[in-house]
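S.,

Sequence below, as promised.
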Amino acid sequence: MREALVMRPSALLLPPTCSSSLPPLRRFVGLRWSSAPRFQVGERADAVVGVARGARGCSFKLGVPASNVCHPRRRAAVIRNEHVQNADFPPKYSKREKKPFPVPVLELRRRAKARMKAAEGKPKRPLPPPKNGMLVKRLIPVAYSVYNARIMLINNLRRLMKVVPVKGCRYCNEIHVGSVGHPFRTCRGMRSDQRRGEHDWGSTLVEAIFLPVEAYHLEDRLGKRIPHDQRFAVPRIPALVELCIQAGVDLPEYPTKRRRKPIIKIGRKEFVDANEDDLPEPEPDRFKQPLLQETHYDEVIAPSSPEETAVLAEETLQAWETVRDGALKLMKSYAVRVCGYCPEVHIGPTGHKARNCGAFKHQQRNGQHGWQAAVLDDLVPPRYVWHMPESGEELERELKSFYGQAPAVVEICIQGGAKVPEKYKSTMRLDVGIPASLKEAEMAV
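The prediction came back faster than expected:
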């Protein structure tokens, strides 16, 4: 009965006899039999050894290479790379659906239960900075570097746009880095049906490349949430600047509260400030660094030579990477919230109460935001554009699937003479050959 329930290997491979010819060796590779097999497999460093038993008094031994039965016995060299060769473009979410959580809700609940279980029977630990109102000392230099890198990025982009043409659609937010706009019919702006989706290209500003994401400025990041009635009384500044201010950058025009002692919690959401009268006078901040200033449009000077343009492009690309990497480090310690329905960003542990969300079905929420943890692209949007081929040829509508994309800042720097970063090569599709004609593109697999 037991033998009837277990599929015999003889159903897959007939047992050979002394006079029978051996079956092809490819049949033995990958077979796993649960019962006492007629074919037993043992592994070696460079081969698979099998012993098959046929009729009584007849058996043979096989040595099959583990990698490929047709190749000689040698180990294959595996080349590993941190970045994939070709990657898909970043997904574009519909305005009618909510953004996905960076960490699933079930995983958040599991972590919370694990923390509660680990804290049972143990004294409560004091709150670490910045939750206790203090600054994270090791991140103060990072905040200054991010602030200065942002100013340098804006100033350099204004100079590069004097020599690298950038076009923007007059009816939508689409941009293209090149002397002539791309021919793809992706316009969804006003009267786009009359133009059959074609863009109406014109000049643009640096704000279309490095998107200005704004947020409310908090004088006390642990204070009460901003109510709806005070939404116009609280100033709004760039979200990246507000994150740097909360991380330790001092700006006279945007004052903020700096505590010298941790807060004292008297409830779950209530606290009082510790008495600081017994402390001596504060010493000069040793982390303070000189701050850069933005250059006005009238004072922008274009690069005078291709060599200067290439150096400026490399400096701009380095500033872009400093902003992205530094902002990610700050977000790991200082909470940043984003609405799950609209691009509204708030720098702080809890979002504000202003009911100014105008996304899909905001009437059901009375204009309230659906706050959730933000990711780096919410704070510093990369703004992907089409990558121009190295040959300099204009893009063709029929060959759209062969072209790659890159962030707008990276594309401007590359056309300015900077070296292509390794992390962006996967979406730029540099190794994909572009057909010379539509007939050649139809033959491509």
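The chain has a mean pLDDT of 83.

Coffee later?
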